[in-house]
Amino acid sequence: MPTKTSGQVHEADIGIEADNRAAVVDILNRVLADQQVLYTKTRKYHWNITGHLFYSLHKLLEEQYTTLAVASDEVAERARSLGGMAIGTLKEFIECATLKEQPGQYPDAETMIANLVDDHEAVIRNLRKFVEATEEKFNDMGTSDFLTAMMEAHEKMAWMLRAFLEEKE
Fold this sequence. Notes:
Helix 1 (18-48) packs antiparallel against helix 2, helix 1 (18-48) packs across helix 3 (90-96) and helix 1 (18-48) runs antiparallel to helix 4. The chain is mostly helical. The chain contains five helices and no strands. The longest helix has 31 residues, at 18-48. Helices cover 73% and strands 0% of the residues.
């Protein structure tokens, strides 16, 4: 069954109704879109960060965008394992994402980190809703567990970024 963001969902006999699988694939594509926007923003900040903590922040952001790249692949593969299609164009990512880009903006290091914390926290809030929906509404405990682990990874990345901001206070 086609959905706005997931393309066609092919038959898979895994104990989840086709309509539910289509809804979960739609959720996964929304998660994927936010992962890609956050990945791109993190990478941009990695390239453009300056200041006395340049090296440590440069390395931290590299670790985080690498984690986000792996997570994106895993989200897309989860959508495919449910018989759906993973979105994959920049246009699709922007259309489906809740996070927003900031073209032409090159904030100072502290603002960059604060922006990333805000984005991770927005992703975490969305994931909390999606964890509940995938398990309770769509009967997909596997995706619920998958999204819970992803939420925990974002919580850790947000904590590491917030720690930088706390030392400024």
